[in-house]
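Q: Sequence in, structure out?
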Amino acid sequence: MTPIAPHITAYLRERLPLQKGASPHTCDSYAHTFRLLFEFASDRFKVTPSKLYLEQIDAQLVMDFLVHLESSRNNSAQTRNARLAAIKSFMRFVEHRVPLLLDQSLRILAIPSKKTDTALISYLCRGEMQAILNSPDVRTRAGIRDRAMLHVTFAAGLRVSELTGLLLTDVALQPTPTIRVMGKGRKERVLPLLKQAAADLRSWLTMRGDPPVPELFVNARGEAMTRAGFAYLLAQHARAASEHCPSLRSKRISPHVLRHTCAMVLFQATGDLRKVSLWLGHAQMQTTEVYLRADPLEKIETIEGVTPLNLKRGRFTAPDKLIASLKVK
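A: Exactly. Output:
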């Protein structure tokens, strides 16, 4: 029997971050997957997670685990597929370290992903986005920071991990205000900032001080802003903004909604999906096509551009009420 502990440690500490260049967020997500899997296996085999063996992580256990995610934890099909992808990645890693488990690995790799519905993306209109940006009290240090975070996230279309990963050295205010973003797959992109976003960022840099961390945005303790911290602040400002913009009350505002909003603004301004894709740092154009489906203006322009059919016209004549009443039923 092969203890699982040394292999999962090597996978999470060496394979993912060093060899594959996975982001800290991806590493954390994969680690959480295996935490859930090992807790499930530990409960089934009545042993502590550190006593589990690779041979026990077979296809049947993985399939039962996936059912558990959806039935007991109420996870979506997308989350279920993400957990399965992490497990498959680990099994491909194990194949080379323990060749005797090749057959077991192939059975797990054969487990299919679940088909999912592709929902339309959620985004904010101009008035809603403006209400959220106006929510922070810019007379305070925290308000100046929050306005800068919200504005930069929206203007640059950042993922929340990209925002929290921004360093002071990633900002250049001269000659043109720009930020250097490290995206998924270690892909870098440099984005210019709008005048107002650059002004908000300058205000924050004036108030930031000199905390002992390299990150651009910090919390009240002078530590790097976290994903959860930014999501919490966004939710607070969205609630405050809904007092002046009631349409926000019916919307679920997440950090990614700001990214979607930026994408829709860019697409409606340029009509060019390729430019949107480059701005957001998408690896494939297919990912960007979701904004094409969500834009009603694009559909209206398509309909208006179609030559109408030449249909025969006529006039409807209502039947005489007396004659109609005399008809034999």
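The beta strands are 171-172, 178-182, 188-192.
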